[in-house]
Structure formats: C-alpha cells, structure tokens
Design goal:
The chain is α+β, with helices and mostly antiparallel strands. The protein is built from four helices and four strands; from the N terminus they run αββββααα. Helix 2 crosses helix 3. Bound molecules: zinc ion.
C-alpha cells in the first residue's frame, strides 16, 4: 500500500470504490486510483485490464467516471462496432452494465449510494 493511497482512504472514503477490482465479463480489471493528466478523469486499458481513476475526484464524479470506464470495457469485450446504432448501443450497454453490477454487488451499492 502506497502512502498516497493511505492518505486518500483517511481523508475521502466516499471517492473510493469498496473494492480494488471489478469483474467485467469474466475479466478481472484492477481499479487503480492514480494521478492522471489534468484533462483526464479516468482511463480504461483492456490490454492490461486496468481502470485508472483520477485520485482527486469528488465522490459523484468518481462514481460517474468508474461507470464510464466500465462501459468502455464492456464495449471492448462485446466487440461493439464503432459507430453502433444508438438502440443497439444502449441495449448492449444496459445488459452489460446489469451483468457487471449483479456480479459486483458491493460496487453497485457504492455507485448508487448518495
Ligand atoms: Zn470515455
């Protein structure tokens, strides 16, 4: 555990997910709370199976960002064509998101908490 990680846990628990990894279509993605470029809130890297979340986000933005990056991973593993018709995109994302949240109930509770 790095010093930076410990400081974040002590000062802003609501900005951190309750787990360090998320199962996305049977692919274990590590959640990395990280320093990112100032223009970047998060990043999904399917090659290394890591989701990076910027370390200074407020709780609602952190949750939105994690969900956004999970959807990028879902699109990757669903081999979604780009650009996909909107109805197909929404349908696949909704189904994929439901599956991921059902498989990660602690994360779902955290994302939908207020
Ligand atoms: Zn994006």
């Amino acid at each position: 555990m790095s010093t930076k990680w410990a400081i974040i846990i002590d000062t802003d628990m609501g900005s951190l997910p309750p787990c360090r990894s998320v199962d996305i279509f049977a692919h274990k993605y590590k959640i990395v709370i990280d320093e990112l470029h100032r223009d970047e809130l998060g990043r999904c890297d399917p090659t290394t199976q890591k989701i990076h979340i910027r370390n200074d986000l407020l709780p609602d933005t952190a949750k939105d960002t994690l969900l956004h990056e999970i959807i990028h991973a879902i699109c990757f593993h669903a081999e979604l064509p780009d650009p996909a018709p909107e109805e197909s995109l929404v349908s696949r994302i909704a189904t994929g998101l439901r599956i991921v949240l059902c498989q990660n109930p602690d994360l779902a509770t955290w994302i939908f908490s207020r």
